[in-house]
Prior knowledge:
By secondary structure, the protein is of the alpha+beta class. The protein has twelve helices and 13 strands.
Amino acid sequence: MTYTVLDAIATGNPPLRRTQEEAAEFMSSIETLPDALQSRLPALYRGSSIDSRYTCVDDYGKDSADEFTFFPKTWTLEPAPTTEERNEHYRASAVPLAEDVGGRALEQAGVEAKDVTHVIAVSCTGFFAPGLDVELVKRLGLPPTTQRTFIGFMGCYAAFNAMRVAHGFCQSQSDARVLVVCTELCTLHFQIEESLESVIVNSLFSDGAAAAVFSSRSEEEANGRLAYIDGRCHLDDDSMEDMTWAIGDTGFKMGLSSRVPDVVGENLPGYVDNLLSPHDVGPDDLDFWAIHPGGRRIVEGAQDTLGLSDADVADSLAILRQYGNMSSPTILFVLKRILDRQAEGDGAPPAHGLAMAFGPGLTIEGALFQRV
């Protein structure tokens, strides 16, 4: 039997870190934000359960508009940077970040560049061609024959689509060594709109990247290691407009309905049962739950719906607190935290674990992991 082994995960962020209090102060300086929204900023940012976030936009760390290099030198932030300008910044910032996490993941996995057979690049916050997949091949010195896949514009659950593709490669090619790299620069698409929805979106999202290495291994080689066993998708029947991601003239614009936590909660029990039951695994058999921290209400709603303990969601809430929502890389941050913590204990990976994320559709994507 052939297994798809998770060899390593590496994570990274742009250098600028801002506390949530500092982010709220930046927002409150924007002169065009209506007073009704200004007055709600402190409570909204405090209630996010986020302590700090990372950004590739240096302006967020400036106290004076005269120092801005991305936004106009005025606290109106108008005229807003165009989509072209934001995409140029994306390319300049995303490539070195993706290279860094990709290189470290391969090093941690003990996989040499010459042995990589596939690269899967994931992003929904910028586009260019030749893309991130080609840049990774060139910059990491991978073989020119490396098979490349790009997964774009899927949002927070996209890492699971990448895992599913990696699993397919590993099951069909005995020497497969697959590098998955998720890179998102959400703060490039900061929008100033006179709506509570926009303020909430601006309070949640952050920048980051994560890479994972998957390899095809025989049962003997995989023994004692954590393997990807199965993945599942569920698309809700009536929530197409509850979470959206569209390209505008001044960047990408997110739509985020207050219904999202409720819709996710309604669908989760059936989703979990459908993913676990074919493998004779039940919720009580799981050693970890890696829940995408799209926001505090998302995690708490999943906890209540599934009857999870505080310990079950502690890692997800810790990543939310330290980083915010980084879209597709976030679930790999959660998985890495769980596995690192386990390694500090008895060193053996968990026997069973479930990871899942939520995004436009509304869609639930997830994966079952198992120690071989």
